[in-house]
Specification:
The protein has 430 residues and is of the alpha/beta class. It has helices at residues 2-28, 60-76, 89-96, 113-123, 137-145, 161-167, 169-176, 187-195, 210-213, 218-228, 243-257, 273-282, 320-326, 345-349, 364-372, 382-393, 396-412, 416-428; strands at residues 53-56, 82-86, 104-107, 127-131, 150-155, 181-184, 203-205, 233-239, 262-267, 287-289, 311-313, 329-332, 354-356, 377-378. The chain has two domains: 26-207 and 415-428, Rossmann fold (3-Layer(aba) Sandwich), CATH 3.40.50; 218-410, Glycogen Phosphorylase B (Rossmann fold, 3-Layer(aba) Sandwich). It is built from 18 helices and 14 strands.
Length: 430
């Protein structure tokens, strides 16, 4: 009965959200040509590698986690092949850089019984690996019925999701018990998964995969340094609406005493770049956009007479790590005006003094480690963010010390992916 109810509600929700999906497709482009993948129907001719491991990831961070795991597993077993699935065109573009020559990239099927069955019939995976919180009940139950080993890596349960998981234990418990093994990020995540009905014997705590995923990109750093022209940089990385405006107000204050400092804003979603540019101009600054190939103020991006220094808008994908590598001070978005936060490990690895807002629940175990090491600054509001940014730009020694602690904290926690790759190869071959 509960699965009939789930399928009924899923269908209603999907139909209700379809207009927003179509609008997003129009804005981002990408996966319209592969819409059949969503229904388990693949273009002809189309072949899958024999006996592959199916790995699924959605967000940019999850795709990076999956890619790191795939490389670690290939290093231990060069014969392994993957089918990599994602759900968005952004995820697809990121995943293209992760798959190997013998791998296949697809969009994940909708979680309807018929779509899932056709996809599993076509792929014929020997094991399935899901990342973080990708819980698709029909997909998971169908794989379990076929005897396919199922794994959940870098598993987490957010503060907001935990009460719902626990309350709906009668539903999630059956799904979570389908997994052969669950690799949780922290003790708290493991407890929440067990509270939601997971078998304690299948849950182990590994730490966060994301400490291993971050890698510096020196060629990209040099390319971006040439674009910006060098100098000291205040970076707003993966910002969300509201955070851009806050950074612009802070930058206007900073520029009064440090006119040499440049502000770079890299919004989380590049399709929001027009709105960010409008905010930049409204604040009285000129705008230099990366996507337009602009390297200096031009007729298309005139500087305001109010401020002589332009703001650099990096509205392209795949360049965030390069930006963190050249930043003087970095703020990590979706933490001041939105709940969740983006990845703060990357700037910390680069030895950059890093600030986040109060909302970092998506990286709770990571934040716990970084705060314990005094390796990151967490502020509560825009005023405290401004105070810390002004302080750091006025105190090079404090910047250097915080950056060194940040880098050391990340380096101490690496190695999780390699250990889990070994376990996964052993478990899926049993």
């Amino acid at each position: 009965m509960k699965w009939i109810l789930y399928n009924f509600l899923f269908a209603i929700v999907y139909v209700a959200m379809l207009p927003s999906f179509l609008l997003r497709m129009k804005r981002r482009g990408g996966y319209r040509a592969r819409m059949g993948d969503r229904f388990g129907r693949y273009p002809s001719p189309f072949t899958f590698p024999p006996s592959p491991i199916w790995i699924h990831a959605v967000s940019v961070g999850e795709v990076a986690v999956a890619g790191q795991l795939m490389r670690a597993m290939r290093a231990k077993d060069p014969s392994v092949r993957f089918v990599f699935s994602t759900t968005s065109s952004t995820g697809w573009r990121q995943a293209e850089g992760q798959v190997g020559p013998g791998d296949t990239l697809i969009y994940n099927p909708l979680d309807f019984g018929g779509c899932v069955r056709r996809a599993l019939d076509a792929v014929k995976p020997r094991a399935i690996i899901l990342t973080e919180s990708e819980i698709w009940p029909n997909f998971i139950r169908a794989a379990k019925k076929r005897g396919i080993p199922l794994f959940l890596i870098n598993a987490r349960v957010s503060d907001r999701s935990a009460p719902r998981y626990r309350k709906l234990r009668w539903f999630f418990g059956e799904v979570l018990r389908c997994f052969t093994k669950i690799f949780a990020q922290s003790d708290l995540d493991a407890k929440r998964l067990v509270d939601a009905g997971a078998d304690p014997a299948t849950v182990s705590v590994t730490g966060s995969f994301k400490f291993d995923v971050a890698k510096r990109n020196p060629p990209k750093e040099e390319e971006l340094r040439a674009w910006i022209g060098g100098g000291e940089l205040l970076l707003g990385g993966s910002t969300w609406p509201g955070e851009d405006e806050a950074l612009l107000r802070i930058y206007a204050e900073l520029a009064k005493t440090r006119p040499d400092v440049k502000l770079v804003i890299a919004p989380r979603h590049f399709e929001k770049a027009d709105a960010v540019e409008a905010n930049i101009r409204k604040a009285g600054f000129g705008c230099i956009r990366r996507s337009r190939g602009e390297t200096c103020p031009s007729s298309s991006s005139p500087l305001s007479t109010l401020n002589s220094q332009p703001v650099y808008l990096c509205d392209t994908t795949g360049e965030m790590m390069g930006l963190f590598g050249i930043a003087t001070v970095a703020f990590v978005g979706k933490s001041l005006c939105e709940h969740g936060s983006q990845n703060m490990i990357e700037p910390c690895l680069c030895g950059v003094p890093t600030l986040v807002g109060p909302y970092t629940e998506n990286f709770r175990p990571v934040m716990s480690d970084l705060l314990a090491a005094d390796a990151i600054l967490q502020v509560q509001d825009e005023e405290s963010l401004k105070r810390e940014i002004l302080r750091l730009f006025g105190d090079p020694a404090a910047r250097a010390a915080l950056g060194a602690r940040a880098n050391a904290a990340v380096e101490r926690r690496r190695g999780v992916v390699d250990r889990c790759a070994e376990d996964l190869l052993l478990l899926q071959n049993r």
